[in-house]
Write a structure and sequence with these properties.
Elements lengths: L2 H16 L6 E7 L2 E8 L7 E2 L4 H14 L31 H5 L9 H4 L7 H10 L15 H15 L3 H10 L22 E5 L2 E5 L8 H4 L2 E2 L1 H12 L10 H6 L2 H7 L4 E2 L8 E3 L4 E6 L2 E10 L2 E8 L4 E7 L6 H13 L12 H14 L16 H6 L2 H14 L9 E4 L5 E7 L4 E8 L7 E9 L4
Helix pairs in contact: 1-12, 2-6, 2-7
Length: about 475
């Protein structure tokens, strides 16, 4: 990452503060090798802020850790862990009982509840039981649509306690914070951040009004954590490492939560039907945005009285941003996304996979066939091609189409594949240079133990020269 890119990132955040967004902010850029840039204004770079709903990723990870230990199942009904929950107000007699999976993916049928939920942090266990016994209202059939629910994640916190036989906060500390070395992350302002804990504010009478901190309670699973930019960057990198690349997940990472479970967290499990543009939805404790067919971005925002937070990273490009501000509704997510997208525009995606050796061998064999003096003259061998290739388009027709394509590009001008792309290990596209264009070749391999070519597409690309 270049110094100029850091300067541009700094300008985004300092400009936001200059427009009166908050009294203080801290932000950082990280990649697979660690935190590459850290800066702040109005607070120490290593100060702790409330990360608010970014906490939900920790709650989800704790659920999966207990699932992996056999202490709960994602499709268990929530009533297994919350017997006090009154479900009399389900939408219909045929409604499904909400499951832990529905709660994880924000699809349990509960309405969005941010302003209310943000004020329930300190609720006691007895007060939470009374809330559950009175019965929540549902706005849709459980399991049918996305709606962001803090109450749902508070229910998950109680499920964690019942399954683990320990308080929610202790489960997160023992299973996640301590083994990952997140010493500056915790559930109150006494967290061990070298820069101390920042005070939250809201706008009042043309200035900033400090706000008291709510203490840990039954709603801590929705947003109770404090953290620093450096610690939250470690957390995000640990999640992203599950997909491989530099800093690959190792046994120490997997001892906390397996790479498979971390990948499971970062899948789009429930589409957000209200978002336009690129597909966006919820995984387990994180949002998933499909920027393009080959670019997936993981994120979560946090908003609590006096605080705003955002974390965002690219799985394919291997970098991310974390940012905090100490003001209610400061919209730090918007400027973090702005800075992230500016960095994204300057990067070429790192490879997310290598093609199979059989895919590469098939490329070489097919390139030899196409650059022969009489291409496609010999029958297609069943060791290289699966039976469907001849059935889908007989060899004679393939030869005829190839001659037309070669004529269209004035014949081949080289035998070296170029500009290759791939959607996965079993897929490859490459080009062969012609005199007035290129020959585009695409193959896809079978899922057999010894993969063979099941798709062979050859077309002329006159615009490529």
């Amino acid at each position: 990452m270049t110094g100029s890119s850091h300067a541009d990132t700094d300008a985004v955040f300092t400009g936001h503060l200059a427009r009166g967004a908050a009294p203080a902010a801290a932000w950082g850029v990280f990649d697979a090798h660690g935190l590459q840039h850290l800066n702040s204004a109005g607070a120490a770079p290593d100060a702790a802020f409330r990360i608010a709903s970014c906490t939900k990723s920790f709650t989800a990870a704790a659920v999966l850790a207990l699932r992996d230990d056999g202490l709960l199942g994602l499709d268990d009904p929530v009533t297994r862990f919350l017997p006090a929950l009154n479900l009399e107000r389900l939408p219909s007699p045929r409604s499904a009982v909400p499951t832990l999976r529905m709660l994880l993916t924000m699809s349990a049928g509960l309405p969005t509840d941010d302003p209310w939920g943000d004020r329930q942090e300190s609720l006691t266990a007895d007060e939470f039981d009374a809330l559950l016994s009175a019965g929540p209202r549902f706005e849709s059939e459980p399991g049918t649509r996305f709606a962001y629910s803090n109450l749902g994640y508070a229910m998950l916190g109680r499920a964690i306690e019942v399954a683990a036989g320990q308080p929610y906060r202790r489960v997160v500390e023992q299973r996640l914070l301590e083994p990952l070395g997140l010493a500056a992350t915790g559930f109150d302002e006494t967290v061990g951040a070298a820069g101390g804990a920042v005070t939250g504010h809201r706008r009042h009478a043309g200035g900033w009004e400090p706000l008291p901190l709510s203490g840990p309670g039954a709603f801590s699973p929705i947003g109770g954590l404090f953290s620093t930019v450096a610690d939250l960057a470690i957390w995000a990198r640990w999640l992203a490492r599950a997909f491989g690349g530099p800093g690959d997940s190792d046994a120490e990472d997997d001892a906390v939560l397996s790479a498979a479970s971390r990948r499971e967290m970062q899948q789009l499990h429930r589409i957000d039907q209200d978002v336009t543009g690129h597909p966006t939805g919820y995984g387990f404790g994180v949002f998933v945005e499909q920027y393009s067919p080959t670019s997936r971005v993981i994120s979560h925002s946090g908003g609590y009285p006096g605080f705003s937070a955002h974390m965002r990273w690219s799985l394919e490009h291997g970098f991310g941003l974390v940012a905090f501000e100490n003001a209610t509704y400061s919209r730090v997510s918007e400027v973090t996304t702005e800075a992230f997208d500016a960095l994204l525009a300057t990067r070429v995606a790192k490879p997310t996979h290598a093609v199979w050796p059989e895919t590469r061998a098939a490329q070489h064999s097919i390139t030899d066939i196409l650059t022969a003096d009489d291409p496609l003259a010999e029958p297609l061998t069943t060791t290289l091609f699966s039976e469907n290739v001849e059935l889908d388009q007989p060899l004679a027709r393939r030869r005829s189409a190839l001659r037309l394509a070669l004529a269209d590009i004035g014949g081949l001008d080289g035998a070296e594949p170029e500009a290759e792309t791939s959607e996965g290990p079993a897929h490859l596209v490459w080009f062969l240079a012609g005199h007035s264009g290129r020959l585009r070749v695409e193959i896809r391999m079978t899922p057999e133990a010894a993969p063979r070519v099941q798709t062979l597409l050859i077309t002329a690309d006159r615009a490529g020269r």
